[in-house]
Amino acid sequence: MEDNKLTVRAVERALDIMLCFTESTELTLTEIASRVDLHKSTVHRLLASLEGKGFIMRDAATDKYRLGYRLWELSANLSQEGDPGIILLPEMERLRDLLGETISLYVQDGLERIRIQAVQSNHAIRRVAPVGARMPLYVGASSKVLVAFAEPAVQQQLLASADWPTGLDQQAFLQQLGDTKRAGFATSVEEREPGAAAVSAPIIDRGGRLVAALAVSGPANRLTLELMQEQAPLIMEAARRMGTMLR
């Protein structure tokens, strides 16, 4: 039994190391050890195993690590059937062409949201939206949508989370969730990032299940609150249409 626990722990640590590369393309041994909060000797052994299997590569010139080619082999076998990021991409591009701003898809993952697809604005000044970015569920237009239209347990877990920021008014947040549910969309102006604004609506599939949040984002001086409220019906209609494409 103890051996099984050690094996599971080693697997979890190896996965934690892999997840270090979601925001960085190259990292040193010291940087990885700091991020996973493990001794460098332990991290070095795990990196050696991952490197041996092709999941991690080490640059001999810089002594930095990066993801290996074996991941490309695995990703090639991912099924695109039912993937909202693939199915909805043409509709997202049409919405971008209509509104001129960056279009994103977000899904809930635990107490965070992840951008799973993005179509960048054609404006010279725009809000760049990297796919794979993680953000907290307690702030931002898409977070309000994902929590407001989710099962009640998600809201309860979020409010009880130890990561809930000190000083952030939970009652005000609950009020925003109620407003979002009634209106069918949410807006945010410089809530998560200075100078940025966003409007979001839920994508609900044919079975009535919340699949994702559709968001339009851009500079706050261009994407004003008044403009977002004007565009909200177009965005809600686009989200409704996208939902009919999913099951």
Automatic annotation (TrEMBL):
Q: Does the keyword tRNA processing apply?
A: no
Q: List the Gene3D superfamilies hit by this protein, alphabetically.
A: 3.30.450.40, Winged helix-like DNA-binding domain superfamily/Winged helix DNA-binding domain
Ranges for domain HTH iclR-type come to: 8-69
**Top-level taxon in the UniProt lineage:** Bacteria
Q: What keywords is this UniProt entry annotated with?
A: DNA-binding, Transcription, Transcription regulation
Query: Does the keyword Transcription feature in the UniProt annotation?
Result: yes
The IclR-ED domain sits at: 70-247
PANTHER family the record matches: HELIX-TURN-HELIX TRANSCRIPTIONAL REGULATOR, ICLR FAMILY, TRANSCRIPTIONAL REGULATORY PROTEIN
Full protein name: IclR family transcriptional regulator
